[in-house]
Amino acid sequence: MSEMPLGDRKPILSGKVRDLYEAGPDRLLFVASDRISAFDHVLGSMIPDKGKVLTQISLFWFDYLRNLVPNHLLTADVRDYPADLQQYSNYLRGRSMIVHKAKMVQVECVARGFLSGSGWKDYQRTGEVCGIPLPAGLRESDRLPTPIFTPAAKNHTGHDENIGFDQVVATVGGELAETLRTLTLSIYSTAAKYAESKGLILADTKFEFGFVPAKDGSDMLVLADEVLTPDSSRYWLASGYAPGGAQPSFDKQYVRDYLEEIHWDKQPPAPSLPEEVVTETRLKYLQAFMQLTGKAKLPE
């Protein structure tokens, strides 16, 4: 797949997976590519349909959560896109959306209902996660007594740094910090309950919020970026859940495990993936999409 699928149009921001383009006054075009990254490097292989999976899952959740929290989505129907984008409709269909340009909150809002990932590492070291004391004797992947808000600082190194709530207050102010914590935990609890009804455990997830102009001219806090995808969330199959160790998940852990097996030094150039790893990774993303949305296939 071309790395410049929109011809000469250059993205204003190109991330590891997403490309952002101007799409009119105060509007952005979000395009999810099929690139995959691990250990802060974009790998030499793409995962077919991954961009569509991420976009379609985000669209599902934006709709499901619309009565709980407003979001930045304007349209994902390419027929409604500006005329100059229509020539790229075959590529954009299913993997893109036009959104409000938001003033982003400079905090990653993370909710955890289970002890895993960096939270497990923090707990092993300190008995706490982001300064929140937890009961002694918890095992890896244990369900927490209650979901917790474990924010992270945004930075430009590719590594998010876990921070305490007091640092969120120092960054955005007390009132907004309280709102972010309450909203993050409310969204997580709603999404986790739904996921459980579909046979999935939502162990943890990361949200991003921003401000867009409301109809009355005030600033409105909205849910932005991707939401509750396998790239921003840790999903486990409920039927195989066995605390006391790491759980098989629908995120990139399968790819990370392969890269560890080949003893990649995590320095560029990033390796390509064998065909069987690409195929298995694609199937994991598709399974997450189908299980969450109830849909049998992606948009053509």
Automatic annotation (TrEMBL):
Taxonomy of the source species: Bacteria, Pseudomonadati, Acidobacteriota, Terriglobia, Terriglobales
Gene, per the UniProt record: purC
GO biological process: 'de novo' IMP biosynthetic process
Family assignment from sequence similarity: Belongs to the SAICAR synthetase family.
GO molecular function: ATP binding; phosphoribosylaminoimidazolesuccinocarboxamide synthase activity
InterPro entries in the record: SAICAR_synt/ADE2_N (IPR028923), SAICAR_synth (IPR001636), SAICAR_synthetase_CS (IPR018236)
Top-rank taxon, per record: Bacteria
A matching Pfam family: SAICAR_synt
PROSITE patterns: SAICAR_SYNTHETASE_2
Protein name: Phosphoribosylaminoimidazole-succinocarboxamide synthase
